[in-house]
Backbone:
């Protein structure tokens, strides 16, 4: 019987010719990753267990991104611990303020992850790298510690849902709308323990930034990983970023899937997840009476260059509603610099928004945009759980950068197509 | 190994942001973190929980972030076990790795009410609702995971291999 793309990557890293769904395996890791929240716990576990050296300094990445530039003394201590450990272990892929970015935007950009890799990261959105045709999944700090020590991790081989994408996206509809639509369809545990394998001519029509966004939120459907086939766009993205050889895996023709879901990209509309679960999806057009206090455009989900372009196209030459706080956070220093070079930063400021250096900050209610009681935020981030971005009575509405920007202009949840069609 | 305690019951999709809000994650101190366990859905949990108590949830318990602080605060708060219909996968791994017992049992999660006295036998997977007299059987752990548990967690188990 054939294997899925994910199963083939796992089999190759476990040194097996074949694996089956449900099988427990030990796989060799190409990268073990952590951030400033999860790494300190991993370092403690690593040292407590008596390990003194990481298995391979070139296969560890540590990115300070959640609470940096540090928001308080405690978070500064955590960053310091990561910094000292990285220096002591001579970790090759350590990114601090000045070079850092939000981990899941940064590591692909820097060529640290590539097609065919097997990656664990102590951050749930590690599944982002499936966009490059890698197997990557989120784990906890103890798994990170064990991975740093041994270079291996145990996995239960997942079964898969095949998501066939047809057609191509209409204007002002993006990868974010695709993944929100899918989560709305299957629910927040609709892919629990499984792979989401994207395929079809629609998958190839999507940009890399859209693919990163889609794989990023696979976890929001409970999935172990999301993955796209490698095509000329993937190769073009990796060329010039990494000199290491990559491996292209393809699903077998006779691979078995638990389920097949067909999504026509051409029929999708700007989509918003109402609080307090990502599965509570509605067309953006249904939100026109929901008044908002803040928008956030950024995060590992939507802080890439195309996201900035989408926001710029809608915000340039216009003013956001006076009662809205507009927060724009490019995900990496390269994206940040490019926003300045292209004049986006000026346009964002002129529209009434602020533009920050990269941080996860507001997405998880850390800092840089915490909500007060009863406040509402349209956010391009990935979770809208109770209290996620601040007070437990505040509300987060998940949307694309275009929808967030359009909503900022109107002060109410807004379908970006209406803003662009009518002008303002 | 056995445990007995009073039940704290929650619904489906209990996420890691309500188990331990990220605003506290500038600390790694388990006792300090545990003072905020469950506070965004049950501000009284920390005041009322006693050693041995039992947490019961619905589908997809522990969804969301990979923060290991989530199973850790439940364990540190005194709860002896989480019983749920299903667990989100990272929470499941983390619970095994840090030694928080978890049991998957749909029937028990449905039938057990908040405030019931419940006893749990980890060796046999038997869950007994002492208040109602009903008993349930949880799905056993795969043998591979039993080895990790028997070794006292993941770090000990990989030390054994080296």
Residues:
């Amino acid at each position: 019987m054939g294997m899925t793309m994910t199963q083939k990557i796992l089999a190759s890293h476990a040194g097996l010719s074949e694996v089956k769904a449900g099988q427990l395996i030990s796989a060799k890791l190409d990268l073990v990753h952590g951030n400033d929240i999860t790494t300190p716990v991993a370092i403690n576990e690593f040292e407590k267990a008596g390990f003194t050296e990481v298995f391979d300094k070139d296969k560890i990445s540590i990115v300070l991104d959640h609470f940096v530039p540090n928001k308080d003394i405690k978070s500064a201590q955590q960053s310091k611990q990561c910094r000292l450990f990285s220096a002591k272990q001579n970790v090759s892929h350590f990114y601090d303020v000045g070079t850092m970015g939000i981990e899941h935007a940064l590591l692909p950009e820097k060529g640290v992850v590539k097609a065919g890799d097997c990656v664990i990261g102590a951050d749930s959105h590690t599944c982002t790298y499936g966009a490059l045709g890698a197997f990557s999944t989120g784990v906890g700090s103890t798994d990170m510690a064990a991975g740093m020590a041994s270079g291996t991790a145990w996995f239960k081989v997942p079964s898969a849902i095949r998501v066939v994408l047809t057609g191509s996206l209409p204007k002002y509809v993006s990868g974010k709308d695709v993944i929100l639509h899918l989560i709305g369809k299957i629910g927040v545990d609709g892919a629990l323990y499984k792979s989401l394998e994207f395929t079809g001519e629609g998958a190839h029509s999507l940009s890399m930034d859209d693919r990163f966004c889609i794989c990023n939120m696979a976890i929001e459907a409970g999935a172990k990983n999301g993955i796209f086939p490698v095509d000329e766009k993937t190769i073009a993205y990796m060329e010039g970023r990494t000199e290491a050889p990559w491996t292209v895996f393809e699903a077998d023709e006779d691979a078995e899937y638990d389920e097949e879901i067909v999504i026509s990209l051409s029929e999708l509309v700007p989509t918003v997840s109402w609080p307090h679960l990502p599965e509570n999806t509605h067309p953006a057009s249904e939100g026109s009476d929901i008044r908002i206090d803040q928008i956030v455009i950024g995060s590992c989900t939507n802080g890439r260059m195309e996201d900035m372009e989408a926001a710029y196209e809608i915000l340039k030459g216009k003013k956001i509603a006076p009662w809205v706080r507009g927060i724009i956070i490019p995900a990496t220093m390269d994206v940040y610099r490019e926003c300045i070079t292209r004049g986006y930063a000026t346009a964002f400021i002129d529209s009434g928004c602020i533009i920050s250096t990269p941080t996860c900050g507001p997405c998880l209610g850390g800092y840089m945009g915490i909500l007060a009681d009863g406040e509402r935020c349209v956010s391009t981030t990935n979770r809208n759980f109770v209290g996620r971005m601040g007070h437990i009575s505040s509300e987060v509405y998940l949307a694309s950068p275009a929808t967030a920007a359009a909503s900022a202009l109107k002060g109410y949840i807004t379908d970006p197509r209406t803003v662009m069609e009518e002008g303002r | 190994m056995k445990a007995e305690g009073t039940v704290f019951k929650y619904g489906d999709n209990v996420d890691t942001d309500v188990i331990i809000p990220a605003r506290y994650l500038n600390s790694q101190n388990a006792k300090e973190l545990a003072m905020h366990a469950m506070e965004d859905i049950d501000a009284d949990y920390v005041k009322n929980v006693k050693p041995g108590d039992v947490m019961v949830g619905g589908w997809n318990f522990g969804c969301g972030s990979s923060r290991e602080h989530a199973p850790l605060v439940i364990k540190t708060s005194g709860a002896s076990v989480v019983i749920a219909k299903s667990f989100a996968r990272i929470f499941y791994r983390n619970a095994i790795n840090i030694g928080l017992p978890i049991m998957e049992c749909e029937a028990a999660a449905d039938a057990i009410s908040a405030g019931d006295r419940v006893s749990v036998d980890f060796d046999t997977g038997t869950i007994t609702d002492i208040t109602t007299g009903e008993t349930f059987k949880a799905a056993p752990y795969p043998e591979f995971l039993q080895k990790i548990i028997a070794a006292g967690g993941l770090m000990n188990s990989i030390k054994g291999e080296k």
About this structure: The CA atoms of residues 112 and 158 of chain A lie 25 Å apart. The domain at 273-419 of chain A is CATH 3.30.499.10 (Aconitase; domain 3).
